[in-house]
Each structure stands twice: as C-alpha cells, then as structure tokens.
C-alpha cells in the first residue's frame, strides 16, 4: 500500500508546499489537491472562508518536488472545458517531468455553480458531458488532431501540442455511481473513492462489476481510497468520530486499529491510501505533528 496526502485547500499555500516537501522526503507516493472555489455547504448557501485555487497550486507543488505524483482530486468537467484541462495537464506534466495525474469528476458542488453562474446540469446530462469530455481529453493527450461531434461538445481538427511526458498521461476518475463507473472502466487509468472499509468495499465491488460489463481488466487500473483518520486511545472519542457528520468517511481508533483498517483496504485490492489533513489539527504545527505520527505509527508500523 502506498500513501499520499491531501492538504486542505483552505490552508496557506506555504503550508501546502511544506507538506509536499515533507511527503517527498519521507517516501510518500503523492499529493492531491481539491478543485473548488469556496467552502461546500451542501446547498446554494455561500459560506465565507479561504479556498486556494487548485490549478494555481499544482505548478507550485511540481516546482518544489522531484519525485511524488500530483494532481487534482478532482477537476469537474461541469466547470472546465476538456481542451483547457488537457492543455493544463500536459504543461504541468512537463513541469513535473512526468509526474502529473489528471483527476476528473462530473461536478457536484451546488453553491459554487450557482454563485458563479455555472450551470449544474441534471445528473443524466452532467454524466453525458463527462463521458464526452474524458474521450476528448484522452484524444487531445494522445493524437495529433482531435475531431469530436457530440451532444455537449464539438471539436474540429483540434491540435494539442506538445504531448505529455507520460504516454499515456494517467486519467483518474473519482466516482461511485454505476454509469460513471462504466465510463471510468472504459476510458480511465485510475479510480478513486471515499469511505470506511465497509463502504469502500461495496463501491469496489461495483467498480469490478463495471469493469466486467465493459470487458476491462480491473488489474490494469490503479485504485485509491481516502478516509479521515482519527487516532485515539479513547473508545468514546473514536465512536464520536465514527458517528459524526463525516462518519462514513472516517476511520478511528488506536494506531494499531488504524493499521488493521488500512490493511483491509489493501486486502480488497486498493493500491493507494490518501490521508486528508482536514481534521488533523487547528494549526499548521498540529497538522505537521499529526502527519509525523501517522508516518511513524501507521505507515511504518
């Protein structure tokens, strides 16, 4: 099992770059960054708070590292045109000397779409847009000229040069819905999901079924999973973490219990465990200390 870190985009850029350097120095696999413009409320309501822009941060992360993979987790095709995503990805792949992963999703955050005037289409149309976008991106990254005539996009003899350092540049999709999983199995190189071992395990079974439905070898795809980590020796604190609003996305317990839970993901076949630092402390120093503890007591247990 490889480990990566996901810094909260509300934290200062200097802290994120320090985390990237730390992850590389300690042998971690990668660093991921969310592609949003404001805190999520789950509704049209806008909440104040800092959110640093993903595609401005990713080149900076590439510039201060030499080995780790990096990418958005994930960029919504409801917001970004596929040609823009392909060209950005290629440039950062060159900046990083072939370490970039283009994470893609269909889009979901209600408030940022509403206040910026970006249409959040009904689910069926949104997935159709995603399906067309990932095909266009794949073509732009791989062939000399792309033509595509779809319901959402028309691309006519479009160039995209230079090509990425990687061939192919990995496309990751973060999703759990059956139709999106089939698109992922057809067109992506990697799949990502959230959740406890029980929830992630159910989604992985759906992923395997999607691969079977489109005749894709699941072993040809890299898979990753993330969950919030709550390290505690208190049963009561662990239960509060598991029963809170992020309970389905949290694993909690002693360091050894977390080692066992992460081992369950490995047994299921996941290749990478991503550690969000969203809940690891109120200050940069606390979050750094928590990551050091995870590195010592869990990653190298």
Topology:
Layout: E1 2-6, H1 13-25, E2 30-33, H2 54-63, E3 69-72, E4 75-76, H3 82-95, E5 102-105, H4 110-116, H5 123-142, E6 146-149, E7 154-158, E8 171-174, H6 178-187, E9 190-194, H7 197-213, E10 222-226, E11 228-231, H8 235-243, E12 250-253, H9 255-268, E13 272-276, H10 284-299
Parallel strand pairs: 1-2, 1-13, 2-3, 4-5, 5-8, 8-9, 9-10, 10-13, 11-12
Antiparallel strand pairs: 6-7
Helix pairs in contact: 3-5, 5-6, 6-7, 7-9, 9-10
Account of the 3D structure:
It contains ten helices and 13 strands. With about 300 residues, it is of the alpha/beta class. The protein has one domain: TIM Barrel. It has a nine-stranded parallel beta sheet with strand order 3-2-1-13-10-9-8-5-4. The model has no long low-confidence stretch (mean pLDDT about 95).
Q: Order of SSEs, N→C?
A: EHEHEEHEHHEEEHEHEEHEHEH
Structure class: alpha/beta
What CATH calls the topology is: TIM Barrel
- Shape, per Cα inertia axes: globular
The helical percent reads 40-55%
- The pLDDT mean sits at 97
Q: What is the number of strand segments?
A: 13
Classified in CATH, the superfamily is Luciferase-like domain
Q: What's the total helix number?
A: 10
Number of domains: 1
Main sheet, how many strands, which sense, barrel?
Answer: 9 strands, parallel
CATH architecture: Alpha-Beta Barrel
Widest beta sheet: strand line-up: 3-2-1-13-10-9-8-5-4
Beginning-to-end CA distance, first to last residue: 12 Å
The CATH class name reads Alpha Beta
């Amino acid at each position: 099992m490889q480990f990566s870190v996901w810094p909260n985009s509300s934290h200062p850029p200097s802290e994120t770059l320090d985390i990237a350097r730390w992850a590389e120095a300690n042998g971690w696999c990668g660093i991921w960054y969310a592609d949003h413009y404001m805190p999520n409320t789950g509704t049209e309501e806008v909440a104040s708070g800092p959110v640093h822009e993903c595609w401005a941060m990713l080149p900076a992360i590439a510039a201060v590292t030499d080995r780790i993979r990096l990418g958005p987790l994930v960029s919504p095709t409801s917001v970004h045109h596929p040609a823009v995503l392909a060209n950005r990805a290629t440039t950062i792949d060159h900046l990083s000397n072939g370490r970039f992963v283009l994470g893609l999703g269909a889009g979901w955050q209600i408030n940022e779409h509403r206040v910026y005037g970006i249409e959040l289409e009904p689910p069926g149309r949104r997935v159709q847009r995603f399906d067309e976008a990932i095909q266009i991106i794949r073509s732009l990254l791989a062939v000399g000229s792309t033509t595509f005539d779809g319901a959402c996009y028309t691309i006519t003899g479009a160039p995209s040069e230079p090509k990425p350092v990687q061939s192919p540049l990995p496309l990751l999709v973060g999703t759990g819905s059956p139709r999106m999983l089939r698109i992922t199995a057809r067109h992506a190189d990697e799949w990502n999901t959230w959740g406890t071992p029980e929830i992630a395990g159910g989604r992985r079974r759906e992923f395997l079924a999607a691969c079977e439905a489109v005749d894709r070898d699941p072993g040809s795809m890299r898979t990753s999973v993330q969950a919030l980590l709550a390290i505690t020796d208190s049963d009561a604190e662990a239960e509060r973490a598991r029963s809170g609003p992020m309970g389905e996305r949290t694993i909690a317990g002693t360091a050894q219990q977390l080692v066992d839970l992460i081992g369950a993901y490995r047994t299921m076949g996941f290749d990478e465990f991503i550690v969000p630092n969203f809940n690891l402390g109120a200050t940069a120093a606390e979050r750094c200390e928590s990551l050091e503890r995870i590195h010592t007591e869990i990653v190298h247990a």
